Structure formats: C-alpha cells, structure tokens
Amino acid sequence: MFDTRELGRRPGALKRVSRSVVAPKGLGIEVIGVREGTTIELDLRLESVMEGVLVTGTARAPLTGECVRCLESLERELEVDFQEMYSYPDADDRSREADTGDDAEEEDMLFLEADLFDLEPVLRDAVVLALPLQPVCRDDCPGLCADCGARLADDPGHHHESADIRWAALQGLAETMRDGEKENAPRERGDDSQEK
Ligand SMILES: [Zn+2]
Ligand SMILES: [Zn+2]
C-alpha cells in the first residue's frame, strides 16, 4: 500500500517515491517468475490529476526460472514499466450515478482507499506480461537429447541412433531369457547412419 496524502489533491502535484518491497507469492508463470520473498525495487512517480492519482513506475526484480529446452535453472533481471490511474472514491460515485449499467468499465478502474493505493495487482499484471513465455538459458540452447535426456550443451559431440538403444534393450532382454548363458556385447554399429 502506498500513501498519497503528502501528494495532496491539487492537480499537477508530483511526488517521487522509491521503495523496496518484498515479492508476494505467485508473481510469475510456471516456468519463470519473481521468487516469493525476494526484493523488488520500485521507482514511482505519483501525479495528482483531476480524477485521482496517476502512478507511473518502474519495477526491478530478480527472476528465477527454468530453461524450457534443457530444464537448467536460470536467473535474469526483470525491469518493467507500468502506469495506472487510481481514481478518488468520490469519482467512483459520480461515474456510478452517470452510467449505472457499465460494469466492465467500473471493474477496470482502481480506486484510492483512504488515500492509499494497492500496487500489487498492477505490479502483478506488468510483471507477468513482461516475462518470457519460453525462457531459454541461452538463445542457441540445443536442449536435451530426445533419446536419453542428456543436456546437449554439456556434450556437444553427443549423438547416438535410437535404433541402437532399441537394439541394446532387445539384446539385454535376450540375455535375460537365455538365463545366464554368456553372450557377446552388442556389436558396435560403426558409422552407417540409421535415422529413425
Ligand atoms: Zn537451456
Ligand atoms: Zn542421448
């Protein structure tokens, strides 16, 4: 909650506020977000206008997430701008009297409550919109091996043909069925490439 009392109601009055807040729960999406309890740095500019207080600001926070390709954890800095109008409660009364049927319009409006405004919903929307939907540890992350799940960035030369895995599995099965009878290890397939 932020206080606007010092700002006063004279249109044109300006106030700058810098504050660190503790990140609330659930500020993010499944793959990336601001971890609960980390610090969000806020720089706000409050401007008194006729109908209320116009809040313009920037938020900076550390992001933690997971690369969608290789599942490696990753960290980013988030910086996001936002702007929101908080109307005086009496402006609400006036608009209610003026047009009673316009529910959608009213739901979108935010109001000052006893000269305080709640930045959390605004911050939440701004942060979630600014998050990468498909965060990657690096732009050219090669992801995981589709066959064995190895992280390809750690092992650039990694490759094997899927047929070999199946072959090895069959071989293993055959060995089990022979019940102890010694068999040769699966032959190396050499370089003849077998795409699946
Ligand atoms: Zn990655
Ligand atoms: Zn592999």
From TrEMBL:
Protein's recorded name: DUF177 domain-containing protein
Region Disordered, annotated ranges: 172-196
Composition skew (Basic and acidic residues), residue ranges: 176-196
Domain of life: Bacteria
Family matches, as InterPro entries: YceD
